Amino acid sequence: MYLTWLDNNSWLMEIGGQRILVDPWLVGELSFGLDWLFKASLKQERLISEDIDLILLSQGLPDHAHLPTLKQLDHKIPVVASPNAAKVVQDLGYISVTCLEHGESFTLNNQVEIRALPGSPIGPTLTENSYLLKELATNFSLYYEPHGYHSPQLKQFAPVDVIITPTVDLALPLVGAIIRGTNSALEVSKWLEPQFILPTAAKADAIYEGLMVNFLKAVGTAEDLRASLEKNNLTTQVLEPKPGDRLKLALKKRAVTC
């Protein structure tokens, strides 16, 4: 299994010989329509020209279903998406779009099973997707949730080998954490006992502007999480990739217990 972090929530996952592009923001600016409040731009654009087997979208918001990026990617690439994100790519003219409700699954080229589970709440009535990916030849598995909202349904799939989720809180005064990592990363690690956990929703090669940026505060560190994992007798390794680094994860087969 190879994982390449492309900054923020964007990942290239190489699993079961398949190349899966997740929540790609690779070119252009990121805007939610109120630039005075929040706007972001990449220091380095990373549009991928190599073959992509699937685009996987967890949410329909611009930081996950990023219009400038999706407009430039080949519209013949199959897409698996939450219902909200599926509307975005369908409107752009993507040819093959599979919409996954919570509990539904999709198999990519007989190599990777992708299961949608409840993820981040967006407003009072909408809950977006998290995903559990399983490499069918080895049963190695990966769980992805970009805002730190983990459904108890996950417990039935334990153990899971790799988790990609926020590992620190990103908080606003009076509002609290809008990205949850400090406690939720430890909680989901207790549930799933992963071999590796990698942070997402982090910024590295991006420039952030607007009023909101002045009030956002990061709470917690990777070292804090490592200490909490050790205190709870978990051997999970916390990895901190740099944007563009292609990591090979040396996963170990788990002992079968009766």
Q: How is this structure best described in words?
A:
The chain has 258 residues and is α/β, with parallel strands linked by helices. The chain has one domain: Metallo-beta-lactamase, Chain A. Helix content is 14%, strand content 33%. It has a 7-stranded mixed β-sheet, covered by helices on one side. Helix 2 links the parallel strand 7 (79-81) and strand 8. The longest helix has 10 residues, at 83-92. The relative contact order is 0.16. The model has no long low-confidence stretch (mean pLDDT 88).
The percent range for strand residues is: 25-35%
- The pLDDT mean sits at 88
CATH topology: Metallo-beta-lactamase, Chain A
N-to-C order of helices and strands: EEEEEEHEHEEEEEEEEHEEEHEE
Q: Which regions contain 5 or more consecutive residues with pLDDT less than 50?
A: none
- Helices and strands: which structural class? alpha/beta
Q: Give the biggest sheet.
A: 7 strands, mixed
Number of strands: 20
**What's the CATH first level?**
Alpha Beta
Strand order of the largest sheet: 8-7-6-3-2-1-20
Gross CATH architecture: 4-Layer Sandwich
* Rg estimate, integer Å: 17 Å
Q: What is the overall silhouette?
A: globular
| Structural domain count | 1
Determine the fraction of residues in helical runs and give it as a percent range: 10-25%
Q: Total helix count?
A: 4
Ends: how far apart?
27 Å
Task: Please write out the topology.
Blueprint: E1 2-5, E2 11-15, E3 18-22, E4 29-31, E5 39-42, E6 54-57, H1 67-72, E7 79-81, H2 83-92, E8 97-99, E9 105-108, E10 112-122, E11 126-135, E12 141-144, E13 162-164, E14 169-172, E15 176-179, H3 184-192, E16 196-198, E17 206-209, E18 217-219, H4 222-231, E19 237-238, E20 246-248
Parallel strand pairs: 3-6, 6-7, 7-8, 12-13, 13-16, 16-19
Antiparallel strand pairs: 1-2, 1-20, 2-3, 4-5, 5-17, 9-10, 10-11, 11-12, 14-15, 14-18
